[in-house]
Request: fold
Amino acid sequence: MSELAWLAVDWGTTNVRVWAMGATDQVLDARTSADGMARLGGDRDAFARAFQELIAGWSGPRPLPAVVCGMAGGREGWQEAPYAPVGRPLDALADLAVRVEIADRGLDVRILPGVSQDDPPDVMRGEETKLLGLGPVSGLVVMPGTHPKWVRLEQGRLRRFHTAMTGEVFAAIASHTMLRHTLTGDGFDLDAFAAAILDAKAAPERLLTRAFGLRASDVLGHVEPAVARGRLSGWLTGLEIEDCLHRLDADKFVLLVGGRDQTARYRRAFAHYGITAEQHDADALTIRGLVSARSRLFPELPAAG
Amino acid sequence: MSELAWLAVDWGTTNVRVWAMGATDQVLDARTSADGMARLGGDRDAFARAFQELIAGWSGPRPLPAVVCGMAGGREGWQEAPYAPVGRPLDALADLAVRVEIADRGLDVRILPGVSQDDPPDVMRGEETKLLGLGPVSGLVVMPGTHPKWVRLEQGRLRRFHTAMTGEVFAAIASHTMLRHTLTGDGFDLDAFAAAILDAKAAPERLLTRAFGLRASDVLGHVEPAVARGRLSGWLTGLEIEDCLHRLDADKFVLLVGGRDQTARYRRAFAHYGITAEQHDADALTIRGLVSARSRLFPELPAAG
Reply:
C-alpha cells in the first residue's frame, strides 16, 4: 500500500475501526478489532499496543498522521482530550485535538475532543465527528444506538443535544430481569414496535407496569418473543421521542444517522408524528468528519513513503 | 416444641420462610432459607427436600398441616396452584388451594393460589395472602418491593391491581449499565429521591435522558453515589406513582405494606400528593393471611403430637 498517507480512526466503547487513507482522502483499506475502550480502559500502553497491532503491515510516511475520534479521548482512554463546550463550530473542534505521547516516532496521533453540555448535563464522544461529517447544515439530527443522541445543529454549530439511555436500558431489562424469559432470541416485530410508540405517546408514565404486564401476558398465555421485544423497545423509544422531540422543538424533517435496521424503526415511529427522515450512513459520516479534521490538523500531508 | 400444631410457609422467589404455629395460631418459632423458587424452580423433588431440611427437628402431629403461599404454587414451583381471577373474596382463596402430592405421609401440604387479572394482564403470588391478612377492608393498598403492587380492595375483595417493575428495573440499571460506575455502594439520599419524584410527576417521559444525564453529571463533575441512587429510584418510583395512583382513582389515604426503609420512601413521595399512609408490616400480614387460610383448610387442628 504505497500510497497510504494517513490513518482515520474511530475508537468506540466496544470496537476500534481504522481506515487507511490516501493522499486525496480516499479510503484504501479498513480494519476493525474488538479492542474497544471497554476492554482497554485505564491502560494507556494497551491502547498503543492495540493500535500497533491493528495497523501492522501497513506502511506509509514517517511520521504517519493518525486522526482519532471517540472514547480513546476519554478519561480512561488512550490520552484524555477534554470536552469542548456546545456552541462552537464543529469544524473548529480539531483545534482542541490532543497529541498522544507515544514512544513510536513513526506515528503522529491526534485525538479529537468530545463535546459537553452543562444544562442539562450531557456528553458525547465520537458523534461530534459524524456531525462534522454532515457539513455546515442546520436541522434536527437523530442518532439511534445504545445511547441515542438528538442534536440541534445550526449552520454546523452544535447548539443543544440530549442523550437517552434507550438501547442500554433495553439490553439490561432484556438480559437481567425476569423479562429475559419472555424476550428470548433476537426477533423484532416492527408492527408491535409501532403500536408501542403510540402507547408511550399516550401515557409515558405507564412504562413500568407495561413491562410487568408483558411478563404477565406471557405467563397467562403466550407472547411471541419478537412481539415482546418490539413492544418493550417501542415503549422505551416512545419515551425518548416524546422527550427529545419536544425539547428540541419538533421539526417535520430530521436527519437520521445510523444503520439500516435501527433507522427503519425510527422511520416507522416518526410516521406517527408526520416526520420524514433523510438517512445518512454513520461510517461514511465518521470518515467525512475525520477527513475534515485531518485537513485542519495536517493541512499538508507528507509525501507517500 | 411439643405444642407445634401446623406450619405457615411463605415461599418466595429468593427465600422461603416457615413459621412453627401453635394450636391457638401463635408463632412458636421461625426459620428462613435461601431455597427460593429461583434456586429450585422446575425441580419438584428439590422443593420437598428443601422443605424437609428447613423443618428438621420440629415435631408435631402426623400428618402435620402446612399452609403455603407464594411462588411454590407457580408453574415452575413445587406444585402448580392455578391463579384465581380478581374479584373473588380473598377469604375464599383457600378453597382453591392445591394439595401437594408428597411421599412423606407425615405432612399435609396445601398451596394457596395466586391471583390473575386479564385486563390489563397482571399476576400476583404471595401478595394476595398479605391482603387476606388485612381483613375485610376497603381502600388502596400499596406494596413496595422488587415488583411493587397497587391494589384496590373493596370489603376484602380484590377489585383491580397493577404491578410495576420498579425495583427490578432499578437493580438492572444499577448493576448492568454504565451507571454502575455512578451508582456504587448502597447509600440512599432521601431528599434526592423526593426531588426526583417531583421531576417524574412533571415530565415522566424524561426518564431515559435523565438517566444518561446522571452519568454525564458524574463524568463532568462528581455526583455522590447516594444522591445518584436516590435520584434514579425517585425517577422510577415517580413513574410508578403517577401511573398507578391515577389508574386506581387516587385516595388521600393508603395502606402501605412493607419494611421500614421502603415504606419511608413511599411516605416521602406521598407527601407531594397530600396522601397519608397507614403502615403495615409485611410478615405480620403474611402470617395473619396464612392463619385465615388455615382456619378454612384445617378448621380443626389435630391434637399436639
The CA atoms of residues 146 and 167 of chain B lie 4 Å apart. Chain B touches chain A through 46 residues (CB under 8 Å).
